[in-house]
Amino acid sequence: MLGRTLQEVSAALKQGQITPVELCQKCLSLIKKTKFLNAYITISEEVALKQAEESEKRYKKGHSLGALDGIPVAVKDNFSTSGIETTCASNMLKGYVPPYNATVVQRLLDQGAVLMGKTNLDEFAMGALGSDTGGSTRNPAAHCGIVGFKPSYGLVSRHGLIPLVNSMDVPGILTRCVDDAATVLGVLAGHDPKDSTTIQDPGKPFMLSSLTDVSKLCIGIPKEYLVPELSSEVRSFWSKAANLFESEGAKVIEVSLPHTSYSIVCYHVLCTSEVASNMARFDGLEYGHRCDIDVSTEAMYAATRREGFNDVVRGRILAGNFFLLKENYANYFIKAQKVRRLIANDFVNVFNSGVDVLLTPTTLSEAVPYLEFIKEDNRTRSAQDDIFTQAVNMAGLPAVSVPVALSNQGLPVGLQFIGRAFCDQQLLTVAKWFEKQVQFPVIHLQELMDDCSSVFEIEKLASVSLKQ
Amino acid sequence: MAAPMLRGCCLGRCWALACIDSSSRHGRGAATGFTSSGKRGQSFVAQQPLLTAQKSRKGEHKWAAVVGLEIHAQIASNSKLFSGSQVHFAAPPNSLVSFFDASLPGTLPVLNRRCVEAAVMTGLALNCHINKKSLFDRKHYFYADLPAGYQITQQRLPIAVNGSLAYSVCVGKKWRQVITKTVRIKQIQLEQDSGKSLHDELRSQTLIDLNRAGVGLLEVVLEPDMSCGEEAATAVRELQLILQALGTSQANMAEGQLRVDANISVHHPGEPLGVRTEVKNLNSARFLARAIDYEIQRQINELENGCEILNETRSFDYKLGFMPEPNLPPLLLYDTASLPAGADPQQVINIDRIQEQLPELPSETREKLIQQYGILPEHSFALLNEVGLLEFFQNVIKETRAEPKKVTSWVLNIFLGFLKQRNLAVNESPVTPSVLAELLNLLDRKVISSAAAKQVFEELWRSKGKTPSQIVSERKLELMQDEEALERVCHAVMEGHPQVVMDTKRGNPRAINKLIGLVRKVTHNRADPTVIKEILEKQLSS
């Protein structure tokens, strides 16, 4: 049951094959068994069971709220959840219990979703899972063999999403299949008066049609994305995917995004600048961690922030402060904004030339083993990981990573589709077609654990091999 | 506060005023940072006429001072600029703080429509160009009363630019000539107010109240077109009146709704401008002029002693600059021509509509008073200068047949004088407009004399509940109406004082006054001196 898609589970709940409480308990049990993965910062067991009970009552009366009623969901720990600790994986917010729900969390709860807990992330989302600022939804999805969807900027409310880069952040959706992502998007999308950067359209449920004929589609392959660091395996999957579209009648053409090579540097300047600004509020006064020093306000700020933030965060704040200094502002920040405009225009030009969707790799390779991962510093690592995904955030476009195949090592590889702004539905429709063609195997964590129970006793894992 | 007019001092020579104050040369702190004592400032105009000062300064080098102002006015709105928490003065600490105001992570700003309208109204009233597109920025600095570590303001592209503010100066003999001066307005921008910090020295701690954090402010930047404290104070006063007339701000300096920072420098005429210093947070009208003049004098003294003027850098100057506020899209305003078809009226602001609905501005009101009642310009200023005075005046006019000039004189001299002496506001006056109107009617009908009227007024002030008529009859203040009887008295007095009569006939001008005085004594002051004089003159000539 836990390996099924959202729609399958929803149907099962409706038919009474399983109850929301049973489902919730199964989830909780698996969460406990996989605790060593450290995937959850907070498990909201009591809340989840309570919500599951409410859902069960509704199903019994035949008044289910919709496709998400009773469905277990997890929310990254940089989304504000009322009454549930929200830390952003930082010392600075240890013990911080928000008094309000992020809009997206509220919308999920309003549909009857069951909140299992708050998932882990790099401190203040500077590098990994969940919300998508530079690829943090799509990258992990590609590495884990699931669907990771980044909506158009302005489609989904950021109210309650603790920001990294306000002008690039979006809530991202991680699901087993594209249909599920569309279902969730239907619940989350639409104008929020509390977020002035959302579009006015109130939003409606996303029902994806099943595309059968791709002959009217034009797929673009950006040539600048063919970089030397791209692993040969991923390159071959990418190539095969392009051929697949072509063989089914779509037009597949090479396009150019000439400013691609500047996007990493540009992103770095803008990201650190916004970070420096957004982190200014963490002073220990109103909420969160406060040091013990009370000699003076300045001393208190300094110590609180030194204790509260890790090196990566402090490094970015310092960098951002540098770029925002009066004497540097024009040369760095403004220049980066201009380059950002150029990068965004690259996409506009390509889409205006008749291309519907772009097809690119999501990551350079399959997931790198832990020991190798920790060799590079965070900045190099981010630069490498985000190379295909970042420009999308700068342009505010929708993008989705769809699993394509397992590597020779047996690890998942994904490919990315990028669509026009606010053409999320079209993008997901194409992705759904591709998913159907590819038939990527579903990963069953339960079975996997049963097979490799001895391996999971070891805390640190070098690599995991999956049986197909 | 006295009328917002300059008493003949400023035409580039306001250093003269400052030198009168030169005895008080304590640190700058002495002149700034005062909160206003008393509800209405007493006259802060130096009473020394310019002439005296000029004499003492003859032969010295001339100095010219240049004063610019940054004025922060709290917008009169129900809720804050970017959040829904209420705006109230003197509420319990931290009782009006929303999640956004406390900078809880994940909260976002949502722009308050009323604040935008207030900015547009103010911009239009000050002849500004309204930018149809304006932008919001973050200004970063660390301070305990700024929870987010930045203030949202409009630095790059504010909502209104290039306006002007006219204020009036009285010059010449007896200050009868009115000159209009103009100060250019560089820009008007919307921005957030900060919270308040209270320093508890005893326990070495700072207490923070965030009630004010996030309240909408209009920052009005006045170019350095002013040349002394008086001009600055007058300009500020006029701005206050305009904001109050518009209803966009209550602009009460005592309650912190209007705060002024002054930029001041001095130079020799013809030479380049000097180094600027800043005098901050002047929140008392009374001390505004004095603080500025003090600083002008201080700079002159420093320079004359061969020292340099140091520009005190703000403590947060070296920190971050501005960054665009990413959570607020550009603010777009429309006029009737550019309004998109089918636009939701709740979501758009039409500048033309706001222009049409602008209330009457103080300058228009004064002009109307002059036209309608024939009063003098300086009186029109005085009437607008006191809260509630104009309304009082107009209510009196409604109920009396006395001439407007008479009413004006009574309201501005006698009534206002009584208020000032007792430090009262117009709305605290024990004498209502109706009562004063009744008194003036008695005077107008010549039931009582002018002197008697003043007596009655004093009594009215003291004992409430009595009408003027009651007091008049109680104290037997009615004028003698019987002219024949009066003639007999005059005749009798003349007969009783032949020497005085002789003096009068000889042309001694004071003699007749003596006679009048004698007649008044006999009649217990119940005869109109003017009438007495007429009768005496008639009898003397016959």
Automatic annotation (TrEMBL), chain A:
BP-aspect Gene Ontology terms: glutaminyl-tRNAGln biosynthesis via transamidation; mitochondrial translation
GO-annotated molecular function: ATP binding; glutaminyl-tRNA synthase (glutamine-hydrolyzing) activity
Domain Amidase, residue spans: 127-428
Catalytic activity reported: L-glutamyl-tRNA(Gln) + L-glutamine + ATP + H2O = L-glutaminyl-tRNA(Gln) + L-glutamate + ADP + phosphate + H(+)
InterPro entries to which the protein is assigned, alphabetical: Amidase (IPR000120), Amidase_dom (IPR023631), AS_sf (IPR036928), GatA (IPR004412)
Location of the protein in the cell: Mitochondrion
GO CC annotation: glutamyl-tRNA(Gln) amidotransferase complex; mitochondrion
Xref: SUPFAM superfamilies: Amidase signature (AS) enzymes (SSF75304)
Predominant localisation class: mitochondrion
Keyword list, A-Z: ATP-binding, Ligase, Mitochondrion, Nucleotide-binding, Protein biosynthesis
Keyword Protein biosynthesis (UniProt): yes
Keyword ATP-binding tagged: yes
UniProt-listed Enzyme Commission number(s): 6.3.5.7
Active-site feature positions: K76 (charge relay system), S136 (acyl-ester intermediate)
HAMAP family (UniProt xref): GatA
Subunit (UniProt): Subunit of the heterotrimeric GatCAB amidotransferase (AdT) complex, composed of A (QRSL1), B (GATB) and C (GATC) subunits.
The protein's role, per its UniProt record: Allows the formation of correctly charged Gln-tRNA(Gln) through the transamidation of misacylated Glu-tRNA(Gln) in the mitochondria. The reaction takes place in the presence of glutamine and ATP through an activated gamma-phospho-Glu-tRNA(Gln).
Recorded family membership: Belongs to the amidase family. GatA subfamily.
Identification of the protein by name: Glutamyl-tRNA(Gln) amidotransferase subunit A, mitochondrial
Automatic annotation (TrEMBL), chain B:
Subcellular location field: Mitochondrion
Gene3D superfamilies: 1.10.10.410
Acyltransferase in keyword set: no
Keyword terms of this UniProt record: ATP-binding, Ligase, Mitochondrion, Nucleotide-binding, Protein biosynthesis, Transit peptide
Residue ranges annotated for the Asn/Gln amidotransferase domain, each copy included: 391-540
SMART domains recorded: GatB_Yqey
EC numbers for this chain: 6.3.5.-
Residue ranges that the Swiss-Prot or TrEMBL entry lists as coiled coil: none
Catalytic activity reported: L-aspartyl-tRNA(Asn) + L-glutamine + ATP + H2O = L-asparaginyl-tRNA(Asn) + L-glutamate + ADP + phosphate + 2 H(+); L-glutamyl-tRNA(Gln) + L-glutamine + ATP + H2O = L-glutaminyl-tRNA(Gln) + L-glutamate + ADP + phosphate + H(+)
GO MF entries: ATP binding; glutaminyl-tRNA synthase (glutamine-hydrolyzing) activity
GO terms (BP aspect): glutaminyl-tRNAGln biosynthesis via transamidation; mitochondrial translation
Function summary: Allows the formation of correctly charged Gln-tRNA(Gln) through the transamidation of misacylated Glu-tRNA(Gln) in the mitochondria. The reaction takes place in the presence of glutamine and ATP through an activated gamma-phospho-Glu-tRNA(Gln).
Record's protein name: Glutamyl-tRNA(Gln) amidotransferase subunit B, mitochondrial
Gene behind this protein: GATB
